[in-house]
Every structure is written in C-alpha cells, then in structure tokens.
Specification:
Length: 479
C-alpha cells in the first residue's frame, strides 16, 4: 500500500494492519527498487529498523505514549545536520564530515517519534534548479526518468514521489521545495522566514533560507510545520511569536480574496499548459464564490537579477568557512597553507558553486558594492513593500509554481541564466519572507505534473494551509 498521509498510516497501525517495522521494510524495498533514480546519498537502514523496533515496543506498552509523528518515515535533504551522520550539501568539499549535533528542526521531529530513513541528494549547497549540480550525480523524476525532479531539493521530491518515505524535509532559499514539489506532483511548503529555526541547516543565503517540507498531503505539511516551528535559542532569527495550531487544520468556512499577476500568467516564458491549468483553477475558485482579481505588479522582471546578486553575496561569505582545514575534503598534496586552501576549494566545489562565490565576491567588492549589492537590497525592499500592500486588500497571492514542466536531464546545464529564470515565480516569497505552498494542479506538457502556488501573509501559515488543503490533493485521499 502506498500511503499518502499520516492519518492513513495511523489508521492501519491501529487496526493492526501494519507497524513501524513493516513500514520501514516496505520503504527500504522501494528504495532498492528505485535505485536507478539516484535519490539517496545514504540509507540509514539498520538504524531506521532499530528506531522502528523501539517505537513499536513503545506503542505496544502504551499506545497513549507515542509522539505526534509516530508512523512518519522521513528523508532528509543533505543540508540538514543529524548528529553522528554525514552531511555534505551534495558537495565534495564536505565529504566525510559528520554532524556534531542535530539541527533544531531534526531534533524536534525525532522527539515526536519520526523515523529518518536516509539522506537524499540535492544541488550542491542548494544552488540549482534541477539537481544536476550535485557531486553525487543527477537524481531523476519518477514520472519520467529522463527528466529532472527539480531542485535544489530534488532528492526530497523524488523520494516522496517514488514512495520511498512518506514525506521529506528540505530547504527553500528561492523555491527549492516548491519547484521540485511542482515537478513531481506533490505539496511543497515554505513557511515564513524565521518560523522554523535554521540552526543546523547548512547556510546558503542566510536571509532567505528556510526549512520546508515536501509531502503528498497538505495535512502532513501542516503537522510537520507544527512540530518544527517555534523559537530557538540557537537561532536569533527564529521568531518568538507563538506557533499557531496547524494540525488539525480548520476547515475553510469563508470566501477569500485572491490576487494574481497578469504579468505572470502572460509571461513570455510560461508554458501554455501551465497557463491554461492556472486559468482553469482561477475559474474554479471564482465559481466557488471566492474573489480572484488581477492586480498590477511591475517588479516581476527585477526579482531574479536582485535575488542572484543578494544570494551570491551571502553565499560567498557563508562558504568561506570551507577552507580544506576545518571540514571535510582536503587536498593533501598542497605545499603550504595557501595552496591547501586553493586546491581544496578548487577541487571541492562544483563550477556552479564557484561561479556564485565569484559573483558574490564581485558584487560585494569595494568598487561595485553600491552599484550591485545596495541596489539589489533596494529592489528587495520594494518587492517586500509592494507584496505587503497587496496583502492589505487580499488574503492570498496566487502564482504558477514554475514557468515550465520538468525538463530533460542536461537541457539547461549549459546556460546558467536560463536555469536561474526557472525560479521566476518562486523567488518573490523568499524576497518578502512570506510563506508559500505549492499544490498539484494536474498534468501539463508531456504529461508532466504542474503545480500552483499560494502565498500568504507573514505568519499566517494556518490560513494559507487551510485554503491549500481545501483545494489540494487531501480531498481525494483516503484516511
Ligand atoms: N534555484 C534557486 C537557486 O539556485 C533556488 C535554490 C534554493 O531555493 N535553494 O538559488
């Protein structure tokens, strides 16, 4: 049985039809059967079985004592620290590095009895949109193994899509959970900046990074968020606002006001099937009594350039710690310290990571700082302001998740700018720090999955997820 939500798993456990060990075995079999998709960097086979055995025992002794995530088998993106396990950000430079502690989010999942089955592939340092930028090779889309699963959390999406786990924890700096979720027909959720602690998440661009989830159902995304969210003394940017109850989500009992951008739906890059499915969805919302209106937004074309200036600037600083001395990979033939730095970084980072470090160093350099970095900060400010103005009149902003469907492996590898443009619809949420969730809309060009994105106001995840659940895959899922 391929489960699509935790509630169904729990119902079967309660009925005696399965238990944690049987679940883990079933997922391990799937991992074996889908090896060709190159999803996992490491499978924690023995450990997951042992965790399952202990949880089954705990349940048998006292069914009341189990955590909120009992029965939830998860995969982790290779950017999240899990104590005593390797974490490499999909890069050679961290090869062999073991986490000394668990990320706060990971710790909270474990405390609620989630089982972690393995560590999945991603673009190096979460830089990329198709998983082609990993030291561990390309991960493939289970809907068409010649196509990419999206990125950078491509392994997360493929692991859920191929039913090798129930849900996955990834990170989203510019769309990295939402875009792969869209490419694989799943639910991808990025919360408000600061809602989940980033402690133990390897940093790419710290003012954009957030931990997010990929799952089959909105209800599972909501539950995972509820467990991971909240203040953390180890991350000063983690918000102190009380965490709403996300699970169970309230039912949608009102008509909402939704804004969308004509400039997005008529964008020259957009695939016709995505435009049509999005328009059909808008019509459906209208016929359900919601108000859906086009609002002007003339900043769309500035989003990508500003994002790539700001994130590369932050990345160039964040990645300076990988020097060949402190973590992971070291080139051992270097003659002195400076050569050790140079050779280790030259061999440890991929060309794309180097490109971004260089670009980031350039935009932060004395002569160009104002022309690029300060200018991009101003653009970010404007996007933030304009987005918040829209929320004065509307509950949500609706946007296609991606301009196109999953492409074939290698199709965009030679043109970084074309790859960057694939993020055009997801980056706004990270620029403004607001939550966004992508739900599947159906199949588009080449029968590949298409997703739509709902953006909400900062810290209004509950409203956003409640709406998404009403229109998401949950409705067709049996519990
Ligand atoms: N594709 C975008 C980038 O390469 C987004 C990545 C992400 O969200 N981590 O920066």
């Amino acid at each position: 049985m391929n489960y699509t939500n935790l509630q169904a798993v729990r119902a079967d456990i309660q009925a005696g039809a399965t238990n944690c060990q049987a679940l883990v075995r079933q997922y391990l079999d799937r991992i074996e059967a889908t090896k060709a998709l190159n999803i996992y960097i490491e499978v924690f086979e023995e450990e997951a079985l042992e965790q399952a055995r202990q949880l089954d025992q705990k349940y048998q002794q006292n069914p009341e004592s189990i955590g909120r995530l009992f029965g939830m088998v998860l995969s982790l993106k290779d950017v999240l620290c899990y104590k005593d396990h390797e974490v490499t950000a999909g890069s050679r430079i961290l090869q062999g590095f073991k986490s000394l502690f668990s990320a706060t989010a990971v710790q909270r999942l474990l405390e609620e009895d989630a089982i972690i089955i393995g560590r999945v592939n991603c673009d190096q340092f979460a830089m990329g949109s198709d998983n082609g930028n990993s030291y561990y090779g390309q991960t493939w889309n289970a809907a068409d193994p010649e196509r990419v699963p999206g990125g950078s959390s491509g392994g997360c999406a493929a692991s859920v899509q191929a039913h090798t786990c129930l849900a996955s924890i990834g990170s989203d700096t510019g769309g990295s959970v939402r875009q792969p979720a869209a490419f694989c027909g799943l639910v991808g959720m990025k919360p408000t900046y600061g809602r989940i602690s980033r402690y133990g998440l390897l940093a790419y661009a710290s003012s954009f990074d957030q931990i997010g989830t990929i799952s089959h159902s909105v209800a599972d995304a909501a539950l995972l968020l509820e467990v991971m969210a909240g203040p953390d003394e180890f991350d000063a940017t983690a918000s102190h606002r009380p965490v709403d109850t996300y699970s169970p989500l309230p039912t949608l009992d009102r008509k909402v006001r939704i804004a969308y951008f004509e400039a997005a739906l008529q964008h020259e890059q957009i695939d016709e099937s995505i435009r049509e499915l999005s328009m059909d969805f808008i019509e459906k919302l209208r016929s359900d009594g919601h108000s859906v209106e086009a609002v002007p937004f003339d900043l769309l074309d500035y989003i990508i350039p500003a994002y790539y200036v700001l994130t590369t600037a932050e990345a160039s600083s964040n990645l300076s710690r990988y020097d060949g001395i402190r973590f992971g990979y070291r080139q051992r033939e270097a003659a002195d310290l400076s050569e050790t730095y140079k050779k280790s970084r030259t061999e440890g980072f991929s060309p794309e990571v180097k490109r971004r470090i260089m670009l980031g160093t350039f935009v932060l350099s004395a002569g160009y700082y104002d022309a690029y970095y300060t200018k991009a900060q101003k653009v970010r400010r404007l996007i933030h302001q304009r987005t918040n103005e829209i929320f004065e009149e509307y509950d949500f902003i609706l946007m296609p998740a991606t301009p196109g469907v999953a492409w074939k492996g290698g199709d965009k590898s030679n043109d970084p700018v074309e790859m960057y443009l694939a993020d055009i619809f997801t980056v706004q949420a990270n620029m403004a720090g607001i939550p966004a969730v992508c739900i599947p809309l159906g199949e588009g060009t080449a029968n590949m999955p298409v997703g739509i994105q709902i953006m909400g106001q900062a810290f209004k995840e509950q409203e956003m997820l409640c709406f998404a659940r009403h229109y998401g895959p949950d409705q067709g899922q049996s519990a």
